[in-house]
Amino acid sequence: MMDNTQLAKQMIQFNKAVFDNSFRAMTMVVEQNEKMFETFF
């Protein structure tokens, strides 16, 4: 059984990784939309 501090550290690292990935995906989507708008208008 792991101690609580180790478990908490792993959960924080995991949440940070998920947040970073979703933030990167969001910025990619926004950039794609901007490119599409530029080609349309």
Task: Tell me about this structure.
This protein is mainly alpha-helical. It has one helix and no strands. It is rod-shaped, with a radius of gyration of 18 Å. The mean pLDDT is 93.
Write the layout of secondary structure elements.
Layout (H helix, E strand, L loop, with lengths): L3 H37 L1
Short précis:
With 41 residues, this protein is mainly α. It contains one helix and no strands.
What is the string of helix and strand elements? H
Strand percentage lies at under 5%
Shape label: rod-shaped
User: How many individual helices?
Assistant: 1
Q: Which residues form runs of ≥5 with pLDDT under 50?
A: none
- Number-wise, the strands total 0
The amount of helix comes to: over 70%
Rg result:
18 Å
Helix-strand makeup class:
mainly alpha
Q: Describe the main β-sheet briefly.
A: none
Our measurement of the CA-to-CA distance between the termini, rounded to an integer number of angstroms, reads: 59 Å
Taking all residues together, what is the mean pLDDT?
93
As an assembly, this protein is: single chain
